[in-house]
Every structure is written in structure tokens, then in C-alpha cells.
Task: structure prediction
Amino acid sequence: MNRLKQALGASSSSISWKPTGKLQQTISSKIEKSGKTLHSGDTSTVKLLPALAGEGRYFVYGDTKIPAKIDFTKDSPLCTTLSRNGIRVRTVEHLLSSLEALNVDNCRIEVTGADEVPLLDGSAKEWVEAVEKTGLSVCKDDSGNTKEKLAPIINEPVHVWRNDSFIAAFPSPKSCISYGINFPQVQAIGCQWVSSVNMDDESFYVKEIASARTFCVYEEVERLREAGLIKGGSAENAIVCSVSEGWLNPPLRFSDEPCRHKVLDLVGDLSLLAEDGNQGFPVGHIVAYKGGHSLHLEFVRRLMGISLEEVSTRC
Result:
């Protein structure tokens, strides 16, 4: 709890932490999934295991334990990466998004093979289905005690921006998201907005967000692969849109599937605000426009009152 208090002190007046009236939970039994990874194209296996109350969500790669916290993020292109002592785990956002949305507050996540979480179908759908199948249990700490779950509350307007991209948060009694994207050069995507009335209702996430797949612009694929990225991307794990020809592998699951996927990513990145088994997604109205993982993480750091330089010393 000392680490939480230190974090709360760093967050200044932007957020405060309040009891939710709920007890911390974990998964009831092991979940295991394997598959091709997005960037290296290699195969990895992920095992999700129950964890004690207060442990939070954390990854284990080899002998290294990496907490799923903003303190251990490392800036990387086209994904969210956690790193500790030079050991990294990439592309954690879809898995963390599903765990945050489904209230899996504490979880041990073991990764073997490639240092990435498998992309699966490009969404969080398979993770959600696996968690719903195994179910959740109230967890206890090593002394046999349960712990109440706390949630971060937005106390005042706060924002970050780069050029014409921004993320802002406003006080609200519920957790809401309004997200916009704009691809004027790609007519089939164009400008899209998605708004959620209440992200506290996990059924909204399950039905409207979890199955939205990652997307790319076909004309950018060669450049990205030459940069060593998206080697494992394909029409089986992403939706691909051409500037001239539109969607190359329809049908879409939603007419605004790209924008919904951005919401999925944001939930995963905001989960890194969590500590000690508490909630990561803030209670407030989050408004984002043309964001990405780097801006999402900068926003979380802004809420916590920490700098990128402070984070870098832990990685």
C-alpha cells in the first residue's frame, strides 16, 4: 500500500482514489492461449493464472516480473510495451483491455516464446470469451484477507495534446469515452466517432468493443515491414483498407470498427493506471481525438504526475 500512497501523492489534484464497494477479483482457473505475434511474426504462449489480492496484474517473462503499470512502459511504435531491467513484453494492450473491462484485478501473466502477446484475431474477443468461460473469484491476500477495490476519480479537467491530436478528461459520475479518428486520405475510413454512455457496464464492452479488430492502411504495409514491424500481420488478424480500393477483407464487424478498436486500445492503456489490484480506468469522461498508444500513455503519466524520464529509469 505504500507504493499506492506514493503514486497518489504524485498524482496531485488531477485524480483521487475512492472505494468502489467491490472486492478485488481474479480468474478462477488457468487460461492459456498461443498464436502468432504482430510485430516479430513469431509464436508466443500466454498463461493467465490466479493472483493474490493486492498483487495487481503483472507479466512474467523468463525470470523477470514486470508489473502492468505505467511506471514500466517503454515507448514503442504501434503497440504498448512493458519493460524492466532490459526485458520487455510487447503488444500487451488487447489482453490488458479485456482484463480491465471484465474486472480481473489481479492476475499473473506468463509469456513464453516471443516477447509479445499473441495477436489472435486482432481484437480482445478471444480473451473475453476465455475469461467469461473460466469465471472470476474474490481473491484474498497472503494473510487470507479480502481487499476492497479502489477507483481513480477525475477531480478536474486535464488534457494532453500533440499537433491536432488530444486526450482530455472531465469530471463525471460515470466512466465514459468519446473517441474520434480521422483518415481523410482513406475514404472508406474517413472521420468516425464512438461514444459510450457508461463503461462501468461491462456488457457494453463485451458486445460493442471487444470484437473490434486492429486495422491498417494497405499502402503503408511495406514501409512498416521494412521498419521491422507487423511481420505477423495478415488478413486473418487485421482489417486492411486501401486508399483506392477500400476494405480488402470485408465484412467489417461494425461500420465504425476502426474507431471502436481505438476505444479497445485506450481501455488497455488506461489500465496501466491501476496499482495493487485497484481499478485503472478513471471515473470521468475521457474524450480523445486521433490518439495512439504513445499519446494514451502520456495521458496516463499526466494523471499520475510523473514524467517519461522517471519511467525510463525503471525500464
